[in-house]
């Protein structure tokens, strides 16, 4: 059964491949397709960069990941433009970003007022062209929370997308 399924997926009608009346085509022939009428995207979604976790106690949360779980953690970094302190926890294939309020107008303080113990705040996904992504998403009625990208914790342009437009998830896009 597996052989015939595989043959059907990677063969053209002809001779060969057992009794199916088909023959194997090379890998390049399998990958050739009719030209698409859809233009290529101007921007591309990439890897998951990090999952951000708001915490009321940054030292305690940092100690949990460093001392209990044995993860490598960064130093605390203040990001006044975003109203947060951050600590990054390095994982094998992504990072966690621990967030703590900085200043009275911190969006993280608003989150913690509603979620006393903290919790997942947002996800960050990499894009290759943040301005093209913003333009395209805005045209598709996805609201960006700022008109221009800001410089994020990694020194790269970022923008947040409204959670009501993204299945209830606050999404950060970061240009790589």
From TrEMBL:
GO terms for biological process: L-methylmalonyl-CoA metabolic process. Keywords: Cobalt, Isomerase, Metal-binding. Its EC number is 5.1.99.1. One of its GO terms (cellular component) is mitochondrion. GO terms for molecular function: metal ion binding; methylmalonyl-CoA epimerase activity. Residues 47-176 form the VOC domain. InterPro entries: Glyas_Bleomycin-R_OHBP_Dase (IPR029068), MeMalonyl-CoA_epimerase (IPR017515), MMCE/EMCE_epimerase (IPR051785), VOC_core (IPR037523). It holds the Pfam family Glyoxalase_4. The keyword Metal-binding applies. The keyword Metal-binding applies. It catalyses: (R)-methylmalonyl-CoA = (S)-methylmalonyl-CoA. Belongs to the methylmalonyl-CoA epimerase family. Methylmalonyl-CoA epimerase involved in propionyl-CoA metabolism. This is Methylmalonyl-CoA epimerase, mitochondrial. It comes from Chionoecetes opilio (Atlantic snow crab). The gene is Mcee.
């Amino acid at each position: 059964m597996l052989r015939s399924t595989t043959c059907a997926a990677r063969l053209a009608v002809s001779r060969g491949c057992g009794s199916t009346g088909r023959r194997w085509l090379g890998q390049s022939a399998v990958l050739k397709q009719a030209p698409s009428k859809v233009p290529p995207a101007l921007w591309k979604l990439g890897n998951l960069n990090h999952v951000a976790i708001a915490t009321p106690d940054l030292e305690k949360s940092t100690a949990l990941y460093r001392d209990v779980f044995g993860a490598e953690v960064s130093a605390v970094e203040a990001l006044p433009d975003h109203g947060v302190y951050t600590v990054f926890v390095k994982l094998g294939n992504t990072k966690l970003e621990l967030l703590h309020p900085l200043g009275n107008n911190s969006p993280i303080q608003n989150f913690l007022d509603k979620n006393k113990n903290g919790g997942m705040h947002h996800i960050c996904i990499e894009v290759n062209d943040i301005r093209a992504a913003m333009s395209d998403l805005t045209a598709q009625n996805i609201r960006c929370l700022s008109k221009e990208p800001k410089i994020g914790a990694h020194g790269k342009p970022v923008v947040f997308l409204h959670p009501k437009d993204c299945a209830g998830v606050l999404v950060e896009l970061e240009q790589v």
